[in-house]
Amino acid sequence: MTATPLYLSRLTLRSEPAVESLMAALLPAGKTDFESDHRLIWSLFAEPGRKRDFLWRRERAGRYFVLSRRPPDPASPLFKVETKPFEPVLAAGDRLAFALRVNATVDRAGARHDVAMDLLRAHPPGARADKRFTLAEKAARAWLETRSADAGFTLEALALEGYRAVRLRRRNAEPGCLGVFDLAGRLVVTEPECFVDRLARGFGRARAFGCGLMLIRRVS
Question: The dihedral of CA 51, 54, 57, 61: what is its sign?
Fold first, then answer.
């Protein structure tokens, strides 16, 4: 279980001309570049020898949320940093709404596939386009449900708000491709400590690239 403090931060890119010029080069308008975002967020946690101990999510251009085990650098020249302790007071039976961007995968015969493509493979290529979104939602729901008990919650409702493939450049290797699911729904907490621990560790893979952070809020 998580024992170290957690911090939730909202990061907003500064609007000074020098920062805007740099960002225009790093993050062209309309382009989703998980790798550039990744490097930007890392700049707030630069400490030699430390492993990544944070999750992040790009909410919109220039706005990010970060859940971390140490506070980000408040004196960043790039970001306005707003940080508060993340100390949710939860009890079994609490109902929460959530938003989750996740790279959900399954291993088959030594190869890793995103769960939507794994389902789509059972359909003829010509029939996949019409079924893509429906099967992606079905696959994401099944994937999250199988992990909910160990994560301290039960799934009450789920909707797929987006599904896309994101290509990643890799040094000395063929480009990689991530299946990214944007999920929204409601859950019921069953084991509060277990649930908060899972929030801190994140869901799925590609957590270094903006996946895995679940944002929560209470619902009646």
Answer: negative
